[in-house]
């Protein structure tokens, strides 16, 4: 009797282990397949964009419409995010610099913090939040309404008709938002440094100009473009693969936002390490 009980317990343990192993394997395989489809979508979108431009068949009107929609959902939040970010950087860095007796360096440290990290990350998170949600919801609703199937039936590529205009629109809006956040963030940090931390205007801009270079701005813009590219590919893929009715659209939006934010955090870490190795901070 005891032997039978032990055998049953072992059988249940083996069964549970097999279930866990199978679920883990299925998750890994599914993730790799999803990543592969995303790479294919990115490749097709990139080559399709170049082909459409060279053939003078690019949908500029649709692209401008999508760009305007992205601006309307991200411009005001970008300003509202840039102001407190510039203030926080100025206050936190200012306290540390003041304890070291180097108040005149606040312009360099605060400005570089906004340019190198704050602006591209804020841009990516805004696009990965509001932008990804808007794109995934739009394409997801079209997929649920079988509009994507209708396009395929008519011989129209959904990638060329829907994805490419959104991709180019995102690449247009991303650097614009990045520049807006840089300007607002640096000015907010400047206002706090001058009015609340005893830094003279000339000292702030002098140190800022001594350390901030054009290369730093280009790196910031490049990071914003990369983040925008990741966001639009993830959002379009999730929207085009939505299924299950309205609940499927909601799931697609949620997945697009989460994956976009996580991808941006990982890529930003890698980009920061690479830029630190090849473009170290130095006097301008």
From TrEMBL:
<feature type="transmembrane region" description="Helical">
    <location>
        <begin position="70"/>
        <end position="97"/>
    </location>
</feature>
<dbReference type="InterPro" id="IPR030802">
    <property type="entry name" value="Permease_MalE"/>
</dbReference>
<keyword id="KW-0812">Transmembrane</keyword>
<dbReference type="Pfam" id="PF02405">
    <property type="entry name" value="MlaE"/>
</dbReference>
<dbReference type="GO" id="GO:0043190">
    <property type="term" value="C:ATP-binding cassette (ABC) transporter complex"/>
</dbReference>
<feature type="transmembrane region" description="Helical">
    <location>
        <begin position="248"/>
        <end position="271"/>
    </location>
</feature>
<keyword id="KW-1133">Transmembrane helix</keyword>
<feature type="transmembrane region" description="Helical">
    <location>
        <begin position="167"/>
        <end position="191"/>
    </location>
</feature>
<feature type="transmembrane region" description="Helical">
    <location>
        <begin position="117"/>
        <end position="137"/>
    </location>
</feature>
<keyword id="KW-0472">Membrane</keyword>
<dbReference type="GO" id="GO:0005548">
    <property type="term" value="F:phospholipid transporter activity"/>
</dbReference>
<protein>
    <submittedName>
        <fullName>YrbE family protein</fullName>
    </submittedName>
</protein>
<feature type="transmembrane region" description="Helical">
    <location>
        <begin position="211"/>
        <end position="236"/>
    </location>
</feature>
